[in-house]
Amino acid sequence: MASADTDAGIRELLSSNSYFGLDEDQVTILVQEKVAALANSDALLSMAGPYKVATKPHGHGDVHFLLHSAGLVERWMGEGRKWVLFFQDTNTLYLTTFLCSLGVSVRHGLEASKPSEFSGYASQGQRSRGVHRSCRTDN
């Protein structure tokens, strides 16, 4: 996921490094929209000038909308994919426990699992029958 500010640079980085060993068609870049930026915790709008509201990329939550609107979810399902890893730069510890979380999700038939934002170690999942289960995946 990129923004209008980072899209060109990301594409250049990938191209100049031969997509780091991937085929070009294995990489999909989704560009998120910009939204009004807030200046403080009182939700005052940040201003880029006297008559212009400052903007920022929409953020992590936009990935789900972009996956749907770009048709990637349908394409991946058609390709038989079963799992998707959402790696977001504010949750780098999750990479240390991802395989454990995936194993727990498969073993218990979870359709979705979400790492704790605190440490990436606690996970919460939901089965299609609505059963919620929480677990700790220490390494």
UniProtKB/TrEMBL annotation:
GO molecular function: UDP-N-acetylglucosamine diphosphorylase activity
Protein name: USP protein
GO biological process, alphabetically ordered: UDP-N-acetylglucosamine biosynthetic process
Gene: USP
Species the sequence originates in: Symbiodinium natans
InterPro entries cross-referenced by the UniProt entry: Nucleotide-diphossugar_trans, UDP-sugar_pyrophosphorylase
Gene3D superfamilies assigned to the protein according to its UniProt record, in alphabetical order: Spore Coat Polysaccharide Biosynthesis Protein SpsA, Chain A
Compositionally biased spans, kind Basic residues: 129-139
Top-rank taxon, per record: Eukaryota
Region ranges (Disordered): 118-139
PANTHER family in the cross-refs: UDP- GLUCOSE PYROPHOSPHORYLASE, UDP-SUGAR PYROPHOSPHORYLASE
